[in-house]
Specification:
294 residues; alpha+beta; 10 helices; globular; 5-stranded mixed β-sheet
């Protein structure tokens, strides 16, 4: 029976409030800024949609509708292309992730130029380039701190347009390419860059690169390295977030080092140490004459 004063003391109470580690603060900061960047960009895109799409009107020109149907057939689209006339766009624009539609200027006349512009937009629909642009938006929002990712996303956006031109011009004669280049020049001063939309015009800055691509008949693999780099950067970020430093388990300050062998030796009556090893003395444990009871 142990004396009352030998009872074990209650364990020391740990602190109720523990300050977060520096890596946790950095992770919170990264996630907060990424959420703000993505929210601001999506809010700008939704504001543009509300401002522009309310001006949509059905296209009534039968020749222009036939240009759209021919472009859809050439690209093998399974569903008819939704096409609207809109006075707020200067060149054909494709918008909508789940229900895409092509917006064309009210002044767009049917003919070869309109057929080429619509073929370009139908190629975007066939390639699902709007979803690729959405991936780029996510990548740049998550990597808001990395200027290299922003540069790669900009180059990837240009490569999307160049690859679309290449697919639309595949197997076309030189005369058709000349007309396509003329159509690009017609829309050179067209619509500004939109977040989640594709448009036939890219502005004057990227026009020379697209014109060179129109008349370059060599087969090209565009964007492979850029998208591989983006995927690698995303994987590295996921690995950095997933890897957390192991928390060391602290021992109580008043904990004594383990001395189990010594305590075991002390609790065995009649133990006689011989060369450092305890040996039981049976004469001391069992009184004489009581061996039969064991």
């Amino acid at each position: 029976i142990m004396p009352d004063n030998a009872a074990e003391a209650p364990p020391a109470q740990t602190s109720a409030h523990q300050s977060p580690a520096p890596w946790q603060l950095l992770a919170i900061l990264w996630a907060a800024v990424a959420a703000v960047v993505l929210a601001v960009r999506l809010a700008g895109y939704l504001a543009w949609r509300r401002r522009v799409l309310r001006w949509n009107a059905p296209v009534t020109d039968r020749a222009l509708l036939e240009n759209a149907r021919s472009a859809a057939r050439a690209m093998g689209l399974r569903h008819p292309v939704r096409i609207f006339a809109n006075p707020r766009v200067d060149c054909p624009v494709t918008v909508g992730l789940f229900h895409p539609a092509v917006l064309v200027p009210e002044t767009l006349a049917p003919g070869d130029a309109a057929a080429m512009m619509l073929l370009h937009e139908c190629t975007h629909l066939h390639r699902r380039d709007l979803w690729l642009k959405f991936v780029l938006v996510l990548a740049t929002s998550l990597h808001w701190f990395n200027p290299a990712v922003w540069v790669m996303a900009r180059v990837a956006g240009q490569d999307i347009e160049l690859a679309c031109d290449e697919q639309a011009l595949q197997g076309r004669p030189k005369a058709w390419r000349d007309a396509y280049g003329q159509a690009l020049l017609t829309g050179a001063a067209g619509e500004k860059k939109i977040l989640l939309a594709t448009h036939f015009s890219v502005g004057k800055r990227g026009m020379m690169r697209r014109l060179r691509g129109v008349f370059d008949t060599r087969r090209k693999r565009r964007g492979v390295l850029v998208f591989a780099a983006l995927l690698l950067a995303a994987a590295m970020t996921a690995a950095m977030v997933a890897c957390t430093p192991a928390q060391s388990q602290a021992t109580p300050e008043n904990a004594a080092p383990s001395n189990a062998p010594e305590q075991a030796e002390a609790t065995v009556p009649g133990a006689v140490p011989i060369d450092g090893a305890p040996v039981l003395d049976y004469d001391a444990i069992m009184p004489a004459g009581n061996l039969g009871t064991w």
